[in-house]
Specification:
heterotrimer, A alpha/beta (317), B alpha/beta (340), C alpha/beta (285), A: 317 residues, alpha/beta, 2 domains, six-stranded mixed sheet, three-stranded antiparallel sheet, 9 strands, globular, C: 285 residues, Elongation Factor Tu (Ef-tu), domain 3, Rossmann fold, seven-stranded mixed sheet, 8 helices, 15 strands, 30% strand
Chain lengths: 317, 340, 285
């Protein structure tokens, strides 16, 4: 157990033993390599399997909307997850007083797809130290530096530290990309429109409409997603160009001003489709046009959800 | 009879087969592999990977989206032509091949036959590539299969290093192997040993003896509430699964066509009725349905488990849920006689 | 030119022959469909057993599974009583006579009339689910089959008198000495000559005799839920109580997977099940 895991486990135990939370959400040891599982502890004697490391790839804020508002939830949050929780509070999905946030300054999530790309899909074990990551396969051993494996969202992350957690365990981490200099969105925006559409088409054509991206996203909690509407019918259900592209574009637009660029969507996708370039573009537009960054506090309404008398109304009829 | 196909000969043999068949083989695709039409680029073939494609080859027989009929404004419906183009799948693993024979019991049943499925099955020859180094996430031997299972194959192929050993199992298979050098008895013996070793190397993933009875007796057990907690309710496990077959039917008015598309019992709207009532209102019921269907209802219906242990659901679940662990745990539940 | 139909997913070509409201609020409407090809009509009724359903197909909208509401001897058409719920049923309600549509069927098992021979039949229906019971009564009482069965009793409940289906047929049945028809509505209304009360209470009051009898319950889930225990109290055994289930359906032929209860498909192994059979299936109604 690492020092971080020990401290987190102790805090979870305390919150559960002192009945300060009804459920503590963290992670537990993986069954299949590379995928520690989100875990929901209701008693401290369940914490034997508790783990917390850079392979914990899911945004735990996803699970906030599963519980009734009265449930007192304890949750480990990294920078992006804290912002997701904040925004879910803004959207009134759970009252702040029923959430206990244990913050962890984040050194980044290791992208399991980068590991399988380099090492093959048969992974025997992964050992993480602060300096390197050792991956063992039946035939070989591989060694990586953290920066080689960071998920693309983490590599450009500007908010790795929790914003308003009740307790922070670990020292603050420097943002990887404070000047946002290496954003994928700049590459994307800089392309000619034909090239942009080709990139988008190339990504979307692998889609198998499994909606893992939607389900992994904390902000996709609609009781009925637009793709399931019969009347009116917004998009084809088929794996056709029209159907898949509409799915990706509309989901990205539904995330505008709500997405924290955690990258959980990409990591959930079994076909390795890139998606964060779309949401990043929309988030950057929000920042530039409306000076709004999602999740920096749990009070500010996003521009498209709220109305004030001094709103710019350029496009509202 | 048994034959040898050397690695050097593969391009020219595939080219020869391409005269009579469209050859489909696992090839490099994005960051992984997929079953694609072979276009003469032997370097793209993925016959060495110790694992399978992500997207399952059931799509070659049951396309994810398939036209069922088209219609005119005055209500004339016409069926699309059947896909009878001869195809040869070169290098499908035994788990996937066996899965197709399981799906035959659904789509080619006594009462109703699905002509689209049947046409493709009849037009397709399968060369199964056995797994000489089964993956840790695979568990075919636990579910009545094996890495060199022959069900559904016209030829079974074994990697022997510098070449592949081919065992023709059907007349179609024999015809394909015509012209290939015969395998020696020594090679046959080596292959038999290799196949046996690969099979016994696989540990039992969970106990299947008594599993159905335990699952049936525990339909209302709180276990189902616990096991689904981290499940996202996405479709990755079912869409990548070679034995999952559920589909939705939808009219695409803009195309004037009726399609069927893969569907999944994991989605909330799957069983939601027009009145709004949903017999499976939460992930608890839906996760239970998935496991019970594969490990109990299939057994009721055809006497076989509806899973061939390919391991895709284990490798690609976004939250790391492992069906083997779920069943190991389910197997420990008490079997009490409950009031019917 | 339509291709020869080889696919069980291709509907039989039909046209809308008649369409008329059944309930005062317009939510229930009966539609009668005619066959484009006489050969299709012959094949349809050759295989027909009351209690079966069809997938009514409206191109561009989809399909909807509806119970067949007529007997085979009534004519070269098929009647359905449709409740307006969603996209397809709304389109069906709005269709004009002589418009084309499709139909796949007959699907499902229907009632096991062979097993019921010689028995008294007690039909208990509520709301629009009465349609297949209506079809069965017509099928038996209007044909030579009636000598194969004992006494026919019907308990039919609706919310109000304005929701009663098949008013003309019911009038005749009240006058038919071979049929005991009990109608009930939820709340009293002036000039209502029959019973008042929910169906389960009415069943208890009428107290049908379980001896050599079969009870068939078709109604909204809540009605069925409360009626079944009353029948058991009265002495009906689970293998003498039948019901017809509903589920979301697509293929209707046991291939798409979605309408299952345990290992049985409601579309193919049902929709008619005995209570004894339901007891062997998981509780997933």
């Amino acid at each position: 157990m690492t020092d971080l895991e020990t401290k987190l486990k102790a805090e979870a135990k305390r919150l559960l033993d002192e009945h300060l939370v009804d459920v503590f959400i963290g992670f537990r040891k993986e069954n299949a390599p590379l995928h520690p599982q989100p875990a929901f502890f209701t008693q401290s004697d369940q914490l034997d399997d508790f783990v917390y490391n850079n392979l914990c790839q899911n945004n735990l804020a996803k699970f906030l909307t599963r519980y009734p508002r009265e449930t007192r939830i304890g949750m480990i949050v990294r920078g992006c997850e804290n912002r997701s929780v904040n925004h879910l509070i803004v959207e009134r999905q759970h009252p702040r007083e029923n959430i206990v946030l244990i913050g962890v300054p984040c050194t980044g999530i290791y992208d399991w797809r980068k590991i399988t790309q380099r090492c093959g899909e048969e992974i025997s074990s992964v050992e993480i130290t602060s300096e390197k990551i050792l991956v063992t396969t039946p035939k070989s051993k591989f060694e990586f530096e953290p920066k080689e494996l960071l998920h693309v969202s983490c590599a450009r992350c500007s908010q790795p530290n929790p914003i308003n957690a009740d307790l922070v365990i670990g020292d603050p981490v420097e943002a990887k990309d404070p000047a946002r200099a290496k954003r994928q969105v700049e590459t994307f925006s800089g392309m000619a429109s034909k090239a942009r559409y080709e990139w988008f088409t190339h990504e979307a054509e692998r889609c198998i409409r499994c909606y893992a991206c939607r389900e992994a996203c904390p902000m996709c909690y609609c009781a009925e997603c637009f793709v399931d509407h019969g009347a009116p019918r917004w998009t084809e259900s088929m794996v056709s160009k029209a159907g898949m592209q509409t799915w990706h574009i509309i989901r990205a637009f539904h995330q505008t001003g709500r997405c924290v660029d955690c990258g959980a969507c990409e990591r959930a996708c079994p076909m390795d489709i890139r998606m964060t370039y779309l949401t990043e573009k929309l988030n950057t537009d929000m920042e530039i046009e409306y000076q709004f960054v999602c999740g920096m506090d749990d009070k500010t309404q996003p521009p498209f959800a709220a109305f004030t008398m001094d709103d710019k109304t350029r496009f509202v009829a | 009879m048994n034959y040898i196909l050397t690695r050097n000969d593969i391009p020219k043999v595939l080219e020869k087969w391409s005269e009579a068949y469209q050859v489909i083989a696992p090839q490099k695709y994005s960051n992984f592999s997929a079953f694609l039409p072979y276009e003469g680029k032997a370097e793209q073939l993925c016959l060495e990977y110790p694992h399978n494609t992500r997207y399952p080859p059931k799509a070659l027989f049951l396309p994810q989206s398939e036209e069922l009929l088209k219609y005119t404004k005055d209500g004339q419906a016409s069926e699309p032509g059947l896909d009878t183009k001869p195809k040869l799948i070169f290098g499908m693993h035994a788990c996937d091949t066996r899965a197709m024979t399981l799906l035959d019991t659904v789509f080619d049943a006594k009462d109703y036959q699905d002509p689209f499925w049947k046409a493709r099955r009849e037009a397709t020859a399968i060369i199964t590539l056995g797994c000489d180094e089964p993956c840790k996430t695979c568990f075919c031997t636990t579910v009545e299969g094996s890495p060199f299972n022959r069900q559904g194959a016209d030829i079974i192929m074994t990697n022997i290093g510098e070449a592949f050993h081919l065992e023709a199992l059907t007349p179609k298979g024999e015809k394909l192997c015509k012209g290939l050098p015969l395998a020696t008895k020594a090679k046959d013996r080596k292959v038999a040993k290799l196949q046996e070793q690969a099979t016994i190397s696989m540990p039992k993933a969970f106990e299947t003896e008594g599993l159905k009875a335990t699952l049936d007796a525990n339909f209302d057990n709180n276990y189902w509430e616990e096991v689904q907690r981290s499940c996202l309710g996405c479709g990755v496990c079912t869409f990548l699964c070679p034995t999952c077959f559920c589909f939705d039917i939808a009219d695409e008015a803009a195309r004037s066509k009726r399609y069927r598309n893969w569907d999944t019992c994991m989605f909330s709207v799957y069983s939601k009725e027009a009145s709004g009532h949903n017999p499976r209102p939460s992930r608890k019921e839906r996760t239970r349905q998935r496991l019970m269907h594969k490990y109990s209802y299939w057994v009721d219906q055809i006497g076989k488990i509806g899973c061939t242990g390919c391991g895709r659901c284990v490798r690609y679940c976004p939250v790391g849920l492992d069906i083997r662990a779920m069943l190991r745990e389910a197997g420990t539940l008490p079997v009490e006689v409950t009031h019917a | 030119m339509p291709d020869k139909q080889t696919s069980p997913y291709t509907p039989i070509p039909m046209h809308l022959l008649r369409s008329y409201p059944e309930s005062v609020d317009g939510l229930l409407r009966s539609v009668e469909l005619s066959f484009d090809n006489p050969a299709d009509c012959k094949a349809f009724y050759k295989g027909y057993n009351p209690g079966q359903f069809c997938q009514i197909s409206i191109f561009g909208k989809g399909e909807s599974a509806i119970g067949i509401a007529n007997a085979s001897w009534e004519g070269d058409f098929v009647r359905f009583t449709v409740q307006r719920m969603g996209v397809v049923t709304s389109a069906l309600h709005q269709m004009q006579v002589s418009e084309p549509l499709g139909m796949r069927g007959p699907l499902g098992n229907g009632f096991p009339l062979d097993e019921w021979k010689g028995k008294n039949l007690i039909f208990i229906g509520g709301g629009s689910a009465f349609s297949t019971l209506y079809a069965t009564v017509k099928h038996i009482s209007g044909s030579h089959l009636k000598k194969d069965f004992g006494r026919i009793s019907i308990i039919y409940g609706t919310r109000t008198s304005g929701h009663v289906l098949y008013k003309e047929s019911l009038k005749r049945w009240h006058e038919n000495h071979e049929i005991d028809l009990f109608q009930t509505i939820d709340n009293p209304e002036p000039n209502w000559p029959y019973l008042v009360g929910f169906v389960p209470d009415t069943v208890r009051a009428i107290s049908p005799n379980p001896k050599n009898a079969v009870a068939v319950v078709c109604g909204p889930p809540i009605m069925t839920k409360f009626t079944l225990p009353i029948l058991e109290d009265l002495g009906f055994k689970p293998d003498a109580i039948y019901t017809s289930l509903e589920k979301r359906m697509k293929c209707g032929i046991g291939k798409c997977g979605r309408c299952n209860i345990g290992p049985k498909y409601v579309c193919k192994d049902g929709p008619v099940f005995s209570l004894a059979e339901l007891h062997t299936l998981p509780n997933e109604l």
